[in-house]
C-alpha cells in the first residue's frame, strides 16, 4: 500500500497523500480531519451526489452556489453572498477535470477564515499553472473507482499540504487511534493491499491512458464541436481528458440522441443529473438555474483508451443525424 502511495504522491507531485477506501469516504474524512462537524458548507449543485451527502453525513448543511455557464465549476462571484456566521468551509468540485477558479476561492477563504476542500475526484493528473490541480486548498480528494481515469477498482485519496492535517487524516481513517493513544472518533477508511495491488498494476499505463483519451477527445472535437456546446478549458490548464461532456440544445434532444445511440448498443451517461440542489431529502430548497439547466441537457460520451477511431466516428454520425435534422 505504501508503495502505491509513494508512487502516486511522486507522480502527482503533491506533498502528502493518504490512500483511502473510496472518494466518498475521502470527502467525509477531509471534513472530519478539519473538525467540520456542524454549520454550513458552501458547495456546488453540479456534481455527483457524494459531494452533497458527505456534507450531510457530517451533520453539516450544504449551501448551494450556482455554477459558471462556461465550465460548470462553482461561480466564485456568488460565494461571498452565501457566507453566514455559520459557514465553516467551501467544497467546490473540479468538474470533469476542469479547474475551479482556485485563486479567487482561496482569497475568499482567507478573508473569511474558511477551509477549502476540493472534490478532485475528476482531477487526477490535471495541472493548473504547472502544478497539480490537487495541490490547491486545504485538502483535495480523489476517487479511484473503476469508472475513473486512474482506478484501483474502489479507492480514493486525500491530498494536503500540511503534514499535521495528513497525520490527522491518517488517524481518522484508522479508527481514530494512534497505537494506544485514542485521539478522536475515527472510522475504518483505510484501503486494502489488494486494491493497492490493482493500482500498482495500472500505474505503468497512466500516461498511455491519458494519451489515448486525448486521441478520442480530439476526434470528437473535430467531428462535433460545431454542433454541441463544450466546457471552456482554462488557458493555464493542462487537461487530463477524464471525460467528454457535451451539452445539447434541450433535454428532448439529449433523450433523442440517447435513444438513437441505444439502437446501436451505445450508452452515454447523464452526468451530472439531477442538479443536487433538487435532491428530495434536502430540508431547504434553493434555486440554481444554471446548474439545473445544464444538468438537464448534458451527457458524457463514451471515452476509454480502447475506443477505436471507427467507433468514435460512428457515434458522431449518429449524434449529427439527430442534431442536424432540425
Ligand atoms: C466518483 C465521484 C465521487 C465518489 O467517489 P467514489 O470513489 O465512487 O466514492 C465523488 N465526487 C465526484 C465528483 C465523483 O465523480
Note the main attributes of this structure.
Aspartate Aminotransferase, domain 1; 326 residues; Aspartate Aminotransferase, domain 2; alpha/beta; 2 domains; 14 strands; binds pyridoxal-5'-phosphate; 7-stranded mixed beta sheet
Morphology call: globular
Gap from first CA to last CA: 54 Å
Structural class: alpha/beta
* CATH architecture descriptor of the largest domain: 3-Layer(aba) Sandwich
Strand % is 15-25%
Number of domains: 2
Question: How can the largest sheet be summarized?
Answer: 7 strands, mixed
Order of helices and strands: HEHEHEHEHEEEEEHEEHHEEHHEH
Biggest sheet, spatial arrangement of strands: 1-9-8-5-4-2-3
The CATH topology of the largest domain turns out to be: Aspartate Aminotransferase, domain 2
Query: Under the CATH scheme, which class of the largest domain?
Result: Alpha Beta
- Provide a count of the helices: 11
* Rg from Cα: 20 Å
Please provide the count of β strands: 14
Bound molecules: pyridoxal-5'-phosphate
What is the share of helical residues?
Answer: 25-40%
Amino acid at each position: 500500500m505504501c508503495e502505491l502511495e509513494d508512487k502516486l504522491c511522486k507522480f502527482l507531485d503533491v506533498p502528502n497523500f493518504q490512500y483511502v477506501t473510496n472518494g466518498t469516504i475521502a470527502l467525509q474524512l477531509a471534513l472530519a480531519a478539519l473538525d467540520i462537524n456542524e454549520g454550513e458548507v458552501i458547495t456546488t449543485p453540479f456534481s455527483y451526489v457524494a459531494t452533497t451527502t458527505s456534507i450531510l453525513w457530517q451533520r453539516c448543511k450544504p449551501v448551494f452556489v450556482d455554477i459558471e455557464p462556461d465550465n460548470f465549476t462553482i461561480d466564485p462571484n456568488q460565494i461571498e453572498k452565501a457566507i453566514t456566521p455559520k459557514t465553516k468551509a467551501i467544497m467546490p468540485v473540479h468538474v470533469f477535470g476542469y479547474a475551479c477558479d482556485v485563486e479567487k476561492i482561496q482569497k475568499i477563504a482567507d478573508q473569511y477564515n474558511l477551509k477549502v476542500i476540493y472534490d478532485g475526484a475528476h482531477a487526477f493528473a490535471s495541472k493548473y499553472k504547472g502544478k497539480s490541480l490537487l495541490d490547491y486548498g486545504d485538502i483535495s480528494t480523489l476517487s479511484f473507482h473503476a469508472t475513473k481515469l486512474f482506478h484501483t477498482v474502489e479507492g480514493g485519496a486525500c491530498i494536503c499540504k500540511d503534514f499535521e492535517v495528513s497525520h490527522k487524516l491518517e488517524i481518522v481513517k484508522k479508527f481514530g487511534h494512534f497505537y494506544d493513544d485514542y485521539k478522536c472518533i475515527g472510522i475504518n477508511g483505510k484501503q486494502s493491499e489488494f486494491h493497492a495491488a490493482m493500482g500498482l498494476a495500472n500505474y505503468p499505463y497512466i500516461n498511455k491512458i491519458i494519451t489515448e483519451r486525448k486521441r478520442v477527445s480530439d476526434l470528437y472535437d473535430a467531428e462535433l464541436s460545431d454542433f454541441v456546446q463544450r466546457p471552456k478549458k482554462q488557458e493555464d490548464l493542462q487537461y487530463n481528458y477524464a471525460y467528454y461532456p457535451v451539452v445539447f440544445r434541450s433535454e428532448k434532444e439529449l433523450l433523442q440522441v440517447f435513444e438513437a445511440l441505444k439502437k446501436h448498443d451505445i450508452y452515454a451517461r447523464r452526468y451530472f443529473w439531477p442538479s443536487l440542489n433538487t435532491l428530495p431529502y434536502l430540508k431547504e430548497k434553493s434555486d440554481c438555474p444554471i446548474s439545473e439547466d445544464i444538468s438537464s441537457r448534458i451527457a458524457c460520451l463514451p471515452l476509454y483508451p480502447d475506443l477505436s477511431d471507427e467507433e468514435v466516428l460512428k457515434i458522431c454520425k449518429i449524434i449529427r443525424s439527430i442534431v442536424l435534422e432540425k
